[in-house]
Amino acid sequence: MQGLMMHYPLTVPSILDYGYRVFPNKEIISILPDKTRHCYTYTDLYKRSKKLMNALQHRLHVKQGDMIGTYAWNHYQHLELYFAVPGTGAVCHTINIRLSAIQTEFIVNNAEDKAIFVDATLVPFFENLAPLFATVEAYIILNAPKDFTTSLPNAIDYEDFIADAPDDTDWVTVDENDACAMCYTSGTTGLPKGVLYSHRSSWLHAVMMSLPNYADTSAEDRILVGVPQFHVMAWGIPYAAVLCGAVLVLPSSHLHPDPFIEIIINERVNKANGVPTIWQGIYAALKKHEAIDTFLLKEFLVGGAAMPPTLINNFQNEFGIKAVQAWGMTETSPVGTLSRLQPHHASLSDQEKIKIRALQGQEVPCVEIRIVTEDGIIAPRDGKTVGEIQIKGVWVISSYFKTISHENFSADGWFKTGDVGNINEEGYLQITDRTKDLIKSGGEWISSVALEVAIMAHPKVKEASVIAIPDELWTERPLAVIVLKNAGDILSLEELDAFLLPLFAKYQLPEKLSFVHEIPKTSVGKFDKKEMRRLYADGKL
Ligand code: ADP
Asked: Is 438-537 the same fold as 25-255?
C-alpha cells in the first residue's frame, strides 16, 4: 500500500522559494573582486534569479537539459546562477578556474556548454580559448568595469543581460531526479570526468548540512564561504544556507589569509569553511593579529584533504575555534562523513578528543560507507582492518557524464572511492592512504599519470614517475623521479617547467626532481609508488 502524501518535488529553485518566503530580509554580502562591498537581501536574490531565468530563456533560448557554464569567483551573481540555471531546467556547470587551458578546453567541449558566465578578471584566459570551444554561443561578463572591452564573441554585460527581463514568472517544472548542476573531477588518466547532480540529491544534501550533528547551519549563522563556488557547488553550503536563513558572506577572489581575517571581523562571521591549506595560512596570520578579541568565528568546516591534528589542536587551544573535519569528494556531493565529538567523549583528555576530531568522521544520514579489503572481504568496524572505502547513498554518483566506468563501482553497486582506510567501533572513518594515482595540493588535484606522460615526452628523459610528497602548507606536492637518456645530461627544474607549462596549470608542475638510474617497479612492471614513497621518507630520493 502506498502512503497518501502529496507528491512535492524537491527542486533547487524551491530552496530559494522557501528562503524568500520565510527569510525575505536576510542578507547576502559579497566582497567583489575590486574589493567593493555589495549587500542585498534574499528578496533581491529571488527577484534577480527570476530575471536571470527569463533572460536565459528569451535571450539565449535556454531549454531543459542545456548546459550553462560559470567561470567565476564567489559572489551574488554566481549565487543567482546556482538557482536561475536549474530554474530553467538547464544544468549549472561550474568550471574550475585553476585548470590548464587544455583541461578547460576539454571540459567545456565535453559538457557542450551553450553559454558561459565569466568574471571580468578571468576573461583574458578565455579570449585565447574561445575559438576552440565548439558549442559556446555567448559569453556573459560578470563584474565588468565601465570601460571593459573583450574580443570574446557575443559578449554581453551581466547587468545588461538581465535588465529588461521580468521577475515574476514561474520556474520551469522539472522532475526532482533531473540534473541541476555539474562539476568535473580529475580523472587518473588526466581527462576530467563530469559528475551530474540532481535537484533531489542537492536538496537532501542541503538538509543534511543543516542538521546540528553535521554542518549545523541555522538562521543564527553568518557563514563565510571560503570554498570556491566552482568546487562541488561550494560543498553545497550556499543551498544549505538559503534553506536555513543564514547570512551568506561571499569573498570573491579574496581567499588569502589577511583579507579572509578582515572579512571575518568586518562581517561578524561565526562559521566558515575551506581546505586545510587556507586554515594553515589563517592560523599563522592570526598569531600575529591584534584584533583576535573581536573574532566571533566559533567553528569552521575543513575538508578536501586531511586536517593535521596539531592544527586542530592549535585552533582550539589558542583561539577557542573548533575545526570540524569532513571527508568526501566531487562524486559524493561532497559530504560523506563528518567528525564531531559525542556527549560520551566529554570525559576524555584533550589529547584523546583531538585524536577523534582528526579522524575523517562518521557517515552522514542518507549515506553508507564500508571498507573492502584487498581479498574482497567487508572489513569489521574495528579501527584496524584497512581496505578501500566504498560508499553508497542519495547524493553519491551512479555513473559519470558520458563515460562508462564499471571499474569505479563494485558488483553490488557501491562507488569505489580510491581512498583507503578503516572504520572504528564507533563508526569513525580514518583515511590512511589512496589507491587513485593523484596528488592533492592545496585542495586541488594533480594527475601524476598525466605529468608522467608529459615528462617522458621531454627529449632528455628516458623514464619518469611522479609521487606525492608531504608538504606542510599544501598538504602534498609532486616529486618527479627521472631516469635521463644520457647519463651526462643535465635537466633543471626550470627547463622542465618551461616544457610542461603549456599543458598544466602552474600549481600542477613538479616541486622537485630526483634523478635515479632505475625507477622501482612492481612484479608486473608497474611503477612501485609505495616503494618510491618509502625511499623518499628514508631520504633516499
Ligand atoms: P573536494 O572538492 O572535496 O576536494 P575532490 O573530488 O576534489 O573533492 O577530492 C576528493 C578527495 O580528497 C577524496 O577522495 C580524498 O582523497 C581527499 N579528501 C577529501 N577530504 C578529505 C579529508 N578530510 N581527509 C583526507 N582526505 C580527504
From this structure: no
